[in-house]
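Fold this sequence, please.
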Amino acid sequence: MSQKAIAVLTSGGDAPGMNAAVRAVVRTGISKGMKVYGVKRGYNGLLNRDVEELNLRSVSNIIQRGGTVLYTARSEEYNTPAGVKKAADYCRDLGVSGVVVIGGDGSFRGARDLTGEGIPCVCIPGTIDNDIACSEYTVGFDTAMNTAMEMVDKIRDTAQSHDRCSVVEVMGRRCGDIALQTGIAVGAASILVPEIEYDLEKDVISRILENQQNGKKHFIIVVAEGVGKVNEIATYIQNRTGIESRVTILGHVQRGGSPTLRDRVVASEMGHKAVELLQNGIGNRVVAMKNGKIVDYDITEALNMKRVFDKNLYDIAHTISI
């Protein structure tokens, strides 16, 4: 089944590499004889008719840009049956018979609803947290980790100069992958993630005191956003060890910046796959990565999958942070 026109939108939190995915969707679609429409500000664009036809030059010089040129937003109106029907009716008015949705779990649920109204959707996981259970990798994750690593490297310089302990909060509300891999990359003394219960005495204080005896004088503690309490943790460390402790919350700096090579390549692969699925009349799918290969799953199946935290990597981090 050949699609006459498709649309692409970005929804939820922005992630570096979204533009690379948009570019791949547009150019793959045009190469297959399709019209491709860019929808502005997520599902709101379908409700507000904020859509424009894109051509090859529309997506020139965007692959290296962070954020999303289509903008993004969350939509309360779309989260109603009437809103979904309104969006689907507009797609039919445009002649759009398939939509590529780039975003996270919430965006996928919106895509499933739109598919239920007769507009097939294919989703691409774009979120820096790497918290999409069906995919071992999400677009934006690598860039966010590299940004966090660079920031912590800078923080280490001043921590070392003052013999301090720096408690650094990185993003990751439900998923500790950014904290885990960044923590390993910067040589953190302790890494706290929401997936693993922790004891401050055992997992932080005892490690600092032990390392002090080995001659270490400055420390980095990486804490995932979902763990929180970074100010309390820093105060506790200072009171128990006598080491001056400071907090840095990296925040949204991790969302921005030029995407890394990996994010550009994976986003391009996923964008190409999404268009191929729509070209073949296949919707209600999530494009994902499994064992380094691009695959796809039913949206409901994908949403019902459970994330598996890499406990082995966590144990490795614990072993080498001495």
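The longest strand covers residues 5-10. Residues 277 and 283 are 7 Å apart (CA to CA).
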